[in-house]
């Protein structure tokens, strides 16, 4: 560093900072308004908000774990009860979405097992393969051949026809 400093450009700060004394007979209006605002507006609002937060903390509601009550099946609805028909249709759609997710989860587990095991996948992933076969067969039996526009009524009729065919095949086998 150079020895010849420019003392005018880099002044040394004073060793003691003087304290400004404001001795006025009139109070500062800013301090007055801040105090009034804190006591009149901020304190009650803060109190109410904290009280509401305490009440909400007692009753935690997790919106992502919504549970719907089971409604009567379409076969249990009375004739002309359109509200029951609507609720049964909504319940059927939720059940179908849950069943689709179950199939997808089992399929992902099988894929992960195949990836993990490599060439030994046929031996070590047999349980997952069997589980996927059972789940897809159950899904196909219930929702297969309904198409995109399938609904609870067509699904119920499909199950009814399948049950009638099983009874007919059972009766023919016993003869």
Low-confidence stretches: none
What oligomeric state do these chains adopt? single chain
Termini gap:
114 Å
- Rg is 38 Å
Order of helices and strands: HHHHH
SS-based structural class? mainly alpha
Question: What do you see in this structure?
Answer:
The protein has 175 residues and is mainly alpha-helical. It folds into 2 domains: 27-63; 82-173, no CATH class. It is 63% helix and 0% strand. It contains 5 helices and no strands. The protein has helices spanning 29-58, 82-117, 121-124, 126-143, 152-174. Helix 2 runs antiparallel to helix 4 (126-143). The longest helix is centred in the middle third of the chain and has 36 residues, at 82-117. It is elongated. The model has no long low-confidence stretch (mean pLDDT 87). Belongs to the complex I NDUFB10 subunit family. Its main location: mitochondrion. This is NADH dehydrogenase [ubiquinone] 1 beta subcomplex subunit 10.
Q: What is the compact description of this entry?
A:
This protein is mainly alpha-helical and 175 residues long. It contains 5 helices and no strands.
Write the layout of secondary structure elements.
Elements: H1 29-58, H2 82-117, H3 121-124, H4 126-143, H5 152-174
Tag the structure with descriptive keywords.
single chain; 175 residues; elongated
């Amino acid at each position: 560093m150079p020895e010849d400093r420019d003392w005018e450009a880099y002044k040394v700060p004073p060793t003691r900072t003087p304290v400004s004394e404001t001795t006025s007979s009139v109070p500062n209006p800013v301090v007055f308004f801040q105090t009034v605002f804190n006591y009149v507006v901020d304190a009650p609002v803060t109190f109410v908000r904290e009280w509401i937060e305490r009440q909400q903390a007692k009753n935690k509601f997790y919106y992502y774990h919504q549970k719907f009550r089971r409604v009567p099946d379409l076969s249990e609805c009375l004739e002309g009860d359109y509200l029951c028909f609507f609720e049964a249709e909504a319940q059927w759609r939720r059940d179908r979405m849950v069943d689709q997710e179950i199939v997808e989860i089992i399929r992902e587990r099988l894929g992960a097992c195949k990836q993990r095991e490599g060439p030994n996948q046929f031996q070590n992933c047999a349980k997952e393969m069997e589980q996927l076969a059972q789940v897809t067969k159950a899904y196909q039996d219930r929702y297969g051949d309904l198409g995109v526009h399938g609904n609870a009524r067509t699904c119920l009729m499909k199950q009814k026809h399948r049950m009638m065919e099983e009874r007919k095949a059972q009766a023919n086998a016993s003869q």
